[in-house]
Amino acid sequence: MLNIALPKGRLGDQVYELLASVGYDCKSIYDDNRKLVFENEAAGVRYLLVKPIDVAIYVEHHAADVGIVGKDILLESRPDVYELLDLGLGRCRMCVAAREDYAGDPDRPVRVATKFPNIAKAHYAKMSRDIDIIKLNGSIELAPILGLSDVIVDIVESGSTIRENHLKILEEFLAISARFIANKSSYEFKNEEINAMLGRLEDAALKEGPHKTAAL
Predict the structure, then answer these.
(1) Which of 28, 29, 139, 205 could disulfide-link to 209, CB 3.0 to 4.6 Å?
(2) Average pLDDT score over residue span 62-87
(3) What is the DSSP string of the chain?
């Protein structure tokens, strides 16, 4: 059986519906209980419900053979996994935002509040810009409002939270979407099963169409 790390929440619901539509359904996943493991022996799959931020950890450490995770998490944590497919789900973008009256000072480092310090560092390194990172875990928009930071680096979907807190987007620099990933050992020893799933997902391309993102 293929062990699939499925992210909890809205993205997980979308991903499960996609997988079910191509033959990997598991009806017990809709049961009203607190189970975290669901199996469909006929389809050859076992779903493991995990927090989105933990999906890549389960796959990297071989607790799951494959998983679905946001590109932001892959770039931030840099797990040693194969990235096989852009599913085109959960589309959003990584942005730099600040107060509406913000004016940068090139003579001092930019104070950046973010949940994604590695992504932020890589972005500003490309511009040879010095920064001071302030790592936060939530309510990132408060940081510039209260003077804790000059800017924030965060994921933006609709932009409503940015606007409602009187912030402005300074730049959008990274497209984010859900990726289909595989454990490297599993890809070798369960190659047929994983490639079968990969092929079905490619055939079920959304309007934009998923595409391979890694050369193996």
Answers:
(1) 205
(2) 96
(3) -EEEEEESSHHHHHHHHHHHHTT---GGGGSSS---EEEETTTTEEEEEE-GGGHHHHHHTTS-SEEEEEHHHHHHH--S-EEEEE---S-EEEEEEEETT----TTSPEEEEES-HHHHHHHHHHTT--EEEEE-SS-TTHHHHTTS-SEEEEEESSSHHHHHTTEEEEEEEEEE-EEEEE-HHHHHHTHHHHHHHHHHHHHT--SS--EE----
Give the number of C-alpha atoms closer than 13 A to the C-alpha of residue 41, restricted to the C-beta side.
0
Query: CA 186 to CA 190: how far, in whole Å?
Result: 5
Identity of the residue numbered 183: N
CA 61/CA 50 separation, integer angstroms: 14
Question: Rounded to the nearest 5°, which phi and psi values hold at 169?
Answer: -85, 125
pLDDT given for residue 64 in this prediction: 98
Question: Are the beta carbons of 75 and 213 closer than 8 angstroms?
Answer: no
pLDDT given for residue 30 in this prediction: 77
Q: What is the spatial distance between Cα 48 and Cα 147, in angstroms, rounded to a whole number? A: 41
pTM summary value: 0.87
Amino acid occupying residue 215 = A
Strands of the sheet containing 82-86, edge to edge, are: 37-40, 45-50, 2-7, 66-70, 178-182, 82-86, 211-212
**Rounded CA separation 156/175 (Å):** 10
